[in-house]
Every structure is written in structure tokens, then in C-alpha cells.
Sequence to fold (257 residues):
Amino acid sequence: MNAAWRTRYELAVDASRKAGDLAREYYETTFAVEHKADDSPVTIADQKAEQLIRSLVTAAFPNDGFLGEEYGQQPGTSGFRWVIDPIDGTKSFIRHIPIWATLIGLEYRDEQIGGVAYIPVFGMTYRAIRGAGAFLNERKIQVSNVAKLSESLVCYSSINWFIRAGREKAFLEIAGRTSRQRGFGDFYGFVLVAEGAAELMVEQGVNPWDIAGIKAIVEEAGGRFTDWSGNQTIYRPDVLASNGKVHEETLAILNES
Fold:
């Protein structure tokens, strides 16, 4: 791993933990909830956490760019870009459900080269950088070896997203062909695939900051991460993450139903 990648990766891990711990301070109190133009909720914790990440990165790498959920895009000149979701799972955060995380995706020349998902309440850090594997804290993780859809566990966020996209038939077909179905939404279903606890995460309605920090973790753990057409992109609202062994069969269902 070259020095430019390594130092940014180390900072991404540190910044995600500092920002996540800051957000947790708000999580354990009462706080106001506002709504953005798209009607999605936002809290002071979202804003302060993203501000902290940007300040830490800018101090170390002033020429790097940003794309964040709360403060948008800031171009850079170094070729590196930090994609930030300060609280992935804000709706859970608001209701004091502990499954939320601070996500940082690290890009170089438009390629997702690394990612961090820090779950403050659980003290768990999922992380990866290209060529070095994926880890949960200090333990290396990998996807499962389950090769049959009928033996697979599939995760999803909400069936409402599939209904809005007119793809509820596809969702129900996948549910009917898999062994178990669990609504482990947002980042959580993806990291479960990465560590081999689930075989599939089928999602609809995501933004780049929701998945930029996740893609490298899944792929470095040995999995696949694509849109529903099989393209490796973070710029579509539909995404499929898998252990790789049941990916093509699932894509076929998504495109036939």
C-alpha cells in the first residue's frame, strides 16, 4: 500500500471514530429534528459530525475533495475524495435505535479504494483498503461460502422502497427463494454480508454517500457489489451486495420480475 493511501486510510478510521463518538453524545440526550428539502430528517449531530470529519481531513490534506450528505460537494485537486455519511441510519438515531453508523468512503480518481463504517454504540469498526482485506476491528473478515440461494439469508431496508420503484414482485420472488429474510437496513445489511453473516443485501433508494464507504469493505471481504444491472457503481439508487456466489442468480430475478 502506498503512503498516500495508507495515511488517508488511517485518518479515515480515526476521523470516523471521533465523529461517531461526537454523534453518540447527542444520541444519549434529547435533540431537535429538522427536515431537509427532500423531507429526510437531519439533526445537529449529523451536521457536527460531518463538520468534524471535514476539518480533520482538511487539516491533513487540504487539496482533497469532499462529497457529504449534509454539506454537499467540494472539489479538490489531489485526485482523492472523501464521501461522508455522518450518521447512516438517522431515522434509527432519532428513535434511539442503536443501529446507526458513521460512514467514510475514500476515493482516488473516481475509484472507491477504501471505506470505514463505525458503529459507536457497539464499538465496532468495519474497515477496508484495496489490497489489504477487510476487518471488523482487528479481526479479518470474509464473506460466506453459501452457494445456494435456497440456503441464503437476504437483508433489506424497507419493502416500501421496492413498492415505490415498482419492484415489489422482484423482492417477493427473492424472499420466496431464500432461506431467511431480515430487515437489517442501512449500512448494517452490507457489513453482515462482508463478515459472512448474510449472503445478500438488496437495496433500493440509496445515495452515493450511503454506499461509498461500504463498497470496498464488501469487495475486500471477497464479495460483489453492483447495481441491479450488474454495474460496479455507487451512482444508482439500486444496489446488490453479495458473497459473490449467489449474485448472478439474484440479478436474474431482479431483471426478470
Notes: Helices lie at 3-27, 44-60, 90-94, 159-164, 168-177, 187-194, 208-220, 247-256. DSSP finds eight helices and 15 strands in the chain.
